[in-house]
């Protein structure tokens, strides 16, 4: 759970990078960073906090150059220590390098051990540094970036969308399974790669297309070059990006996320219709799903909970009593809508069950007669190892409770999760091209003792070269 962006422009890139990171803030709130290059010097600024807390005008004016990249972090691997804040920067054979990564490797420990065995030192505990080391090691041999990234891809197992600055070039690549998103856009004065299309929108740019799984693109001097360096028999796009994680106004792998969520709402009604006075979303994560349920059912959409959008992480909560007050400040029930009404309350997911239990209590306290919970993801039964922050199996409420038991645990009148098949239809991508590990416990690549349905990956480095819009075999 991180957001990445890289820009090559005829003007300075620090402000555009800042705007793009602002648009990607939902992907990570722990820390933020930017690195730029002006032809001579690499500039960087990174620290803990939200984008608006890390940067100000003075800092951005000091980040010079027309090439740069940025990162917002939500730590899934690696400790929460300042060393792990991205982008990582280093100099290699006189070239200034910066690296930003979204995803999670599952073979980091083996790779670290191997490279440490050769005397390599690591300054962080993050998997991203391992990627940088492998690329540098391979580049040392071939002096060819395409070859070095292709060799690196052969070693990496897991999810990775990566943006890399090499002097005044931005290189970006996506793992062969396409687990995390990455897309390319054009502005009036340059090119952008970013985790989600909303970052391109924020710059007034136009979306060109997604980076293909296994593809490496290079932005330099107003041109974009593409190399398909690995291919998989099937992809494994993360279903959770569509259900919860991505912004609803993003287009990922050709699908507008809002519309996927609306279709999920339609299916929730078809699978579990119920007579009620109103359909209400859990703000903000259940809004598009609830709009879909209301459309399909004809039941009126009315907000029963209002979220305070100004409550940041800095809210001071010294003790348990204040924590309870904090929940009430964050989400306030609209009593006039809820009193004596039956309610269909829609959220994107139940993970530990704590949020749903609390919300059912709040709306019941406000006078709701019946609370029918409808959930936009199937029951989450297994952890995610590929970049979404999920608790262990023991903490997942649905890992050992069935639907009725979860329903009574959260205190709802009824509960329905969308079925896996309906979710797949709503996304519109074939089942074998999706990762449903958190729902089924079966992952697209080998992870410890977990069950696996592997995709075959072939590395085809340099066999393909393609233009941006077209894609033809050489
Ligand atoms: P829980 O209380 O653990 O059941 O959390 C479920 C709520 O957290 C839902 O309202 C989701 O919108 C949200 N959520 C789902 N997945 C995540 C995640 N990986 N990180 C943070 N919040 C999440």
TrEMBL record:
UniProt cofactor(s): Mg(2+); [4Fe-4S] cluster
GO biological process terms, semicolon-separated: 'de novo' IMP biosynthetic process; purine nucleobase biosynthetic process
Catalytic activity: 5-phospho-beta-D-ribosylamine + L-glutamate + diphosphate = 5-phospho-alpha-D-ribose 1-diphosphate + L-glutamine + H2O
Cofactor note: Binds 1 Mg(2+) ion per subunit.
Positions that bind [4Fe-4S] cluster: 238, 384, 435, 438
Single Gene Ontology MF annotation: magnesium ion binding
Pfam family, one: GATase_7
SUPFAM superfamilies assigned: N-terminal nucleophile aminohydrolases (Ntn hydrolases), PRTase-like
Alphabetical list of InterPro entries matching this protein: GATase_2_dom, Ntn_hydrolases_N, PRTase-like, PRTase_dom, PurF, PurF_N
UniProt keyword Iron-sulfur, yes or no: yes
Binding locations of Mg(2+): 285, 347-348
UniProt-recorded name of the protein: Amidophosphoribosyltransferase
């Amino acid at each position: 759970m991180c957001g990445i962006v890289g820009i090559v422009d005829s003007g300075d890139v620090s402000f555009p990078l800042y705007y793009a990171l602002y648009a990607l803030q939902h992907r990570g709130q722990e820390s933020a960073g930017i690195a730029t290059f002006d032809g001579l010097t690499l500039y960087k600024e990174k620290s803990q906090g939200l984008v608006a807390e890390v940067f100000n005008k003075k800092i951005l004016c000091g980040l010079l150059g027309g090439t740069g990249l940025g990162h917002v972090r939500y730590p899934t691997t690696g400790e929460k220590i300042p060393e792990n804040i991205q982008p990582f920067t280093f100099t290699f054979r006189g070239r200034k390098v910066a690296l930003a990564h979204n995803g999670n490797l599952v073979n980091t420990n083996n790779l670290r051990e191997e490279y440490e065995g050769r005397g390599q030192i690591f300054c962080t505990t993050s998997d991203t540094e391992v990627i940088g080391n492998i690329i540098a090691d391979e580049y040392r041999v071939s002096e060819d970036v395409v070859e070095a990234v292709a060799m690196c891809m052969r070693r990496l197992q897991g999810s990775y969308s990566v943006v890399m600055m090499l002097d005044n070039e931005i290189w970006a690549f996506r793992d062969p399974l396409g687990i995390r998103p990455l897309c390319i856009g054009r502005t009036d004065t340059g090119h952008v790669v970013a985790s989600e299309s909303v970052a391109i929108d924020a710059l007034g740019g136009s979306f060109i297309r997604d980076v293909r799984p296994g593809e490496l693109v290079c932005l330099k001097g107003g041109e974009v070059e593409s190399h398909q360096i690995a291919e998989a028999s099937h992809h494994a796009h993360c279903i959770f990006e569509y259900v919860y994680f991505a912004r609803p106004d993003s287009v990922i792998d050709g699908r507008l996320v809002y519309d996927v969520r609306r279709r999920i709402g339609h299916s929730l009604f078809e699978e579990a219709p119920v007579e009620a006075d109103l359909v209400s979303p859990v703000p903000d994560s259940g809004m598009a799903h609830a709009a879909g349920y209301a459309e399909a059912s004809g039941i009126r959409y009315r907000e029963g909970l209002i979220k305070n959008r100004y409550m940041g992480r800095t809210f001071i909560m010294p003790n348990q009593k204040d924590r309870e007050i904090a929940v009430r400040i964050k989400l306030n029930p609209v009593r006039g809508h809820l009193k004596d009404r039956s309610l269909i309350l829609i959220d994107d997911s139940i993970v530990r069950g704590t949020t749903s239990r609390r919300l059912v209590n709040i709306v019941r306290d406000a006078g709701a007669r019946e609370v029918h919970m409808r959930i936009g993801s199937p029951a989450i039964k297994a952890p995610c190892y590929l970049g979404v922050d999920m608790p262990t199996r023991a903490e997942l409420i649905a890992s050992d409770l069935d639907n009725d038991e979860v329903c009574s645990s959260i205190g709802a009148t009824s509960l329905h999760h969308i079925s896996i098949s309906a979710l797949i239809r709503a996304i519109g991508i074939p089942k074998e091209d999706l990762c449903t590990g958190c729902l089924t416990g079966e992952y697209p690549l080998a992870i410890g003792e977990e069950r696996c349905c592997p995709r075959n990956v072939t590395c085809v480095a340099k066999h393909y070269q393609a233009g941006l819009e077209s894609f033809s075999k050489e």
